[in-house]
Amino acid sequence: MSPTLLNAATVGKRGEVIVDGITCDFSGTRVLHETDLAVQAGEFFTLLGPSGSGKTTLLRIIAGLIDFTSGSVAIDGSDVTHLPTQQRDIGFVFQNYALFPHLTVAQNIAFGLKIRKVRGTALAKRVDEMLELTELGALRDRHPSQLSGGQQQRVALGRALAQRPRVLLLDEPLGALDRRLRQDLGSEIRRVQQESETTAIYVTHDQEEAYILSDRMGVMEAGYIRQVGAPRDVYSAPNSDFVANFLGETNSFVAEVVGQSRSGTQVRTGEFVVTATEGPTLGIGSACTLSARPEQIRLSPSVETAPVGYEAVARVTITDARFFGQTIRVRLADERGSYLVDLDSAEAIPEVGTPAVMSVRARSAVLLPIP
Ligand code: ADP
Ligand code: MG
């Protein structure tokens, strides 16, 4: 057998989506700028970004639900740009469940199949498979009004997958649910996507959802996809201030490049020199930002007492310190800015007004260009 036939990506999995140079204007305003996106067959890909960044617009273009200005969409190598939605072989799950209120759970799941003229035992078998996949068997004869929000969303998922779509598109499907339920149903969506081997493109503004669900994600801002990668890689090596801040708390230090070596880029911030390992190559003398997550930073009373494996980065004063459950959240400031550090909640809560030295774990600080 040839090696390519053994490759899981080419056997069985369908639903590769290629978005090429999509530009979209609404009444003269550009909401997507020459956007490219490549989602692999079987992948769970999340579009993550703040409200208004263009996530829904891009998803609806992939679905064939709206007109756009230029560019193309291909699924599994064939151009679908001019193909109507019904012929694209995709499933859709929206935030508002959009179930038929007068139909039972089983009838809702069967609906699309019936339209496609699936009948008799084939229909019954497929509905049963979907009820099992979404663990709704016991609720099959209920109506939507007799279900919780999470259960309704599982019905919507089963209905979307019943026709074995090549691609499942989900637009903030957990948005209307409370936090605990969001996590449970999120894991459920991921399990169902894996078991059904369906490509999923998922839209959310919630970074935790994106982390839990995605193989890869694309971070959107103002009609651009700013960065694409595995959640952990994007979190630890953001390519801009925007991405660093959108993905969680971060500390930004004003800095200047003073050297390059095999171990990374040396930057000066105030009186300290720190090595950054991720980020663009910038010439010596370039102004830049050094970015470090709160959990990458430790505090000590002096430079000499900084923990082993950490590099001093700023002399600060503690401005606030609060118990935060798993951590103690400490805010600090110097004349250039304010910062955030999370301490282990077993540690003593530091006193406001105390001077301290912030040190960053070696090889964890990221260099960012000045926007
Ligand atoms: P997101 O899903 O990331 O919140 P959207 O894709 O819904 O963002 O919207 C992107 C931008 O396009 C926003 O500025 C929004 O106001 C605008 N927009 C979306 N739909 C329309 C429309 N039908 N007509 C005009 N402007 C729209
Ligand atoms: Mg949206």
Q: Describe it for me?
A:
- The chain is α+β, with helices and mostly antiparallel strands and 371 residues long.
- The chain has two domains: 239 residues, Rossmann fold; 120 residues, Beta Barrel (OB fold (Dihydrolipoamide Acetyltransferase, E2P)).
- Helices cover 24% and strands 36% of the residues.
- It has nine helices and 20 strands.
- The strands form four sheets. The protein has a six-stranded mixed β-sheet, sandwiched between helices.
- A hairpin with a 3-residue loop joins β16 and β17.
- α3 packs across α4, α3 packs parallel to α5 and α5 runs parallel beside α6.
- The longest helix has 18 residues.
- The protein is elongated, with a radius of gyration of 25 Å.
- The protein starts with a helix and ends with a strand.
- 36% of the residues are buried.
- The N terminus is likely disordered.
- Bound molecules: adenosine-5'-diphosphate and magnesium ion.
- Magnesium ion binds next to α2.
Total strands: the figure is 20
Low-confidence regions: 1-10
N- and C-termini, Cα separation: 51 Å
- Count of alpha and pi helical runs: 9
Provide mean pLDDT, rounded. Answer: 92
Helix content: 10-25%
Strand % is 35-45%
Q: How large, in whole angstroms, is the Cα Rg?
A: 25 Å
Counted up, domains total 2
**Secondary-structure element order, N to C:** HEEEHEEEHHHEHEHEEHHEEEEEEEEEE
Give me the side-by-side strand order of the main sheet. Answer: 6-7-8-3-9-10
Please tell me what the overall shape is.
elongated
Q: Per CATH, which architecture of the largest domain?
A: 3-Layer(aba) Sandwich
Structural class: alpha+beta
Assigned CATH class of the largest domain: Alpha Beta
CATH superfamily of the largest domain: P-loop containing nucleotide triphosphate hydrolases
Main sheet: strands, sense, barrel:
6 strands, mixed
The CATH topology of the largest domain, please? Rossmann fold
